[in-house]
Amino acid sequence: RNQTKLRAEYFQGIFDAIEKGLSEGHQIGKRVLLPSSHTGSRRYVIQNYHDGIAICRVYGPPDLFITYTCNPKWPEITLATLEGQAPNDRPDIIVRVFHMMLQRLLNDIRSDSIFGPTLAILYSIEFQKRGLPHVHILVWLGNT
C-alpha cells in the first residue's frame, strides 16, 4: 500500500532494462520494495542505524559496552539436551535460554541497582560461527 510513498525513483531498474534491450513491459517486471518494518531488509537495517545515531545525538557517547555470550554449559541447556546430544544439536533450546538470560541481564541493568540510573540501552544480537548467540550492549548511564 505504501509503494508510491517510497523513494523508488532512486532505483535504476527501468534504465537498466532498456540498456539490456528489454522493451516490453512484461519483460521488465515490477519491483516491490520492502518497508523498514520487514525484519532483515535493507531499509530495516538503515532505520535501526539511524535510530542508534539519534540516541547517540541525544545522550552522547555510551558509557558502557558490554558483550554477553551464550554458554553451552549453562544448566538450563545441559538439562534440556538428551543423552548423546551436543548443545549445538538443539539450537531451539540455545536460543530460548539465551533470550531468557538476556532479558534477565537487561532487567538487572535497568533496575538501577548495578550501575545506577540508566538513560538508554541499545543492543544487537549476533550469531557466532559456532552457532552460539551473543549480544553487544551499549548503556548510557544517568549520573556520570
Number of extended strands: 3
Shape: flat
Mean pLDDT: 85
| Number of separate helices | 5
Query: How much helix, percentage-wise, in residues?
Result: 25-40%
Order of helices and strands: HHHEHHEE
Q: Which residues form runs of ≥5 with pLDDT under 50?
A: none
The profile of the biggest β sheet is: 3 strands, antiparallel
Which range does the strand content fall in?
15-25%
Output the strand order for the largest sheet.
1-3-2
Structural class: alpha+beta
Distance between the amino and carboxyl termini: 46 Å
Q: Rg, please?
A: 22 Å
Structure, described:
The protein is of the alpha+beta class and 144 residues long. Helix content is 38%, strand content 17%. The protein has helices spanning 13-19, 25-28, 42-59, 75-80, 91-110; strands spanning 64-69, 118-127, 133-141. The chain has a three-stranded antiparallel β-sheet, sandwiched between helices. A hairpin with a 5-residue loop joins strand 2 and strand 3 (133-141). The N and C termini lie far apart (46 Å). The model has no long low-confidence stretch (mean pLDDT 85).
